Amino acid sequence: MQILDNFFHLKKSKTSIKQEFIAALTTFVSLSYILFANPNILHDAGIDKGAAFTVTAIATAIGCFLMGIIANYPIALAPTLGSGAFFAYNVCIGMKIPWATALAAVLLASILFILITILKLREMVVDAIPQDLKYAISSGIGLFIAFIGLQSSKLIVNSNSTLVKLGSFNNPDTWVSMFGIILTVILVASRIPGSIFIGMLLTALFGIIIRQIPLPNSIVSSAPSIAPTFGKAILELKNINTTQLFMVVITFLLVTFFDTAGTLIGMTQQAGMVDKQGKIPRIGKAFLSDSLAMVEGAILGTAPLGTSVESSAGIAMGGRTGLTSILVGFLFIISLVFSSLLTVIPSTVTSPALIIVGVLMAANLKNIHWHEFEIAFPAFLIVIGMPLTYSISDGLALGMIAYPITMIAAKRYKEIPKMMYILLIIFVAFFIITNL
Fold first, then answer.
1. Residue 168 pLDDT > 90, yes or no?
2. What are phi and psi of 363, to 5 degrees?
3. Do the record's keywords include Ribonucleoprotein (predicted)?
4. I need a surface site. Which of 53, 122, 226, 411 has the fewest CB within 10 A?
5. CA–CA separation, 390 vs 388, rounded Å?
């Protein structure tokens, strides 16, 4: 016990092993859908689904270990659906690039990522972002998470005429989510310890009782081999030799850079790690962790890993140190054997947690100087841009481009960090490259 306290600084962080374990369980349950969603996406790109399942679990576990040990952050690193979708549908299907070559592009982008991290360029970028925009980033991620939760719960559905609309209450899945939302709201408002996790467990039980969630066919199952994907990225590096593939590498680099930076800022804000000067402790180590995680993920055979927004559920349950991340990693290793049990935790069970966490993260809106339009406008673009573009990096880019413009117009150009001008150029280029 003392060894854990000395390594993770549990007392200093005002947490305990029990609290970290509850947080880890909550993060794992919220993130467990990636074990099925990521293999489905990678399978569309031509990758063996069984191998993709095992790779997803192992790569996530290693990523969590890296974040916990190196940075001591309660944040999980896992394959992100945005990067996975870009990998499969834009690169492999759209550009007709073989999946092994696309993995090589991810690996090369990851290596560049490590170089940028060692040179502390990522730290410089984060430190240059004004505090108001950091609050906007965490709040925007909160709205984004809540929007994902509302979609997963079937309360918000697609509409051809209005893009989105209220879902049908004739859908039994909606009733499972509604039960979970109401129950979890009551538990959280009542200050019940472990409320979000308890809410997910009881919601799953309710779904089973009303026969909307099937019981697992078995308890223990063997994990498929990773042989079809392991090491293929290394063998394909020699084929990254065209302008098109170099553009793919740069795109992977830009998307993951800003996606991870935005999410890390949001998660550390939520966990109360940011000091009064707006500095994030050990941010360089956190960036190194996710850079290394991208490398190991590519070698194993998955699309880029990144900071998981679902970590916010564990942080909301009190996760404050890397022990949370490490425990999440162990749970993903265990899931390889008990994967069939995860079928009782569909998105309708985890969606209430995402909605509640979104509410908690949106609290940072109160810290933004809304009465100063030159600050309010770029902050608003970030907050509203993330859910509406369905992308943390795109929402971040909108605000970063607007900020120098509004501050110059307000004759406050002396307050603009020099790095923000560089970011303005980078983000404009980012939009041009990613939207060609």
1. no
2. -60, -25
3. no
4. 411
5. 5
- Range with lowest mean pLDDT among 164-178, 249-263, 315-329: 249-263
Quick one: pLDDT at residue 193?
Answer: 67
Retrieve residue 337's tokens: 């054997």
Give the model's pLDDT for residue 259.
74
Closest by CA to 351, choosing from 177, 183, 96, 231, is 177
Query: Angle between the 121-128 and 99-118 helix axes, to the nearest 10 degrees?
Result: 70
Is-contact 305 290, C-beta < 8 A? Answer: yes
Q: Summarize the confidence of residues 419-428 as an average pLDDT.
A: 89
CA 125 – CA 243 distance, rounded (Å)? 27
Beta bridge partners of 164: 158
Q: Per-residue confidence at 220, pLDDT binned at 50, 70, 90?
A: confident
**pLDDT at res. 343:** 57
The Cα-based distances of 229 to 108, 249, 276 in angstroms read 16, 19, 46
The three-class DSSP label of residue 48 is coil
Kindly state the helix (H) or strand (E) to which residue 386 belongs, with its residue range: helix 373-389
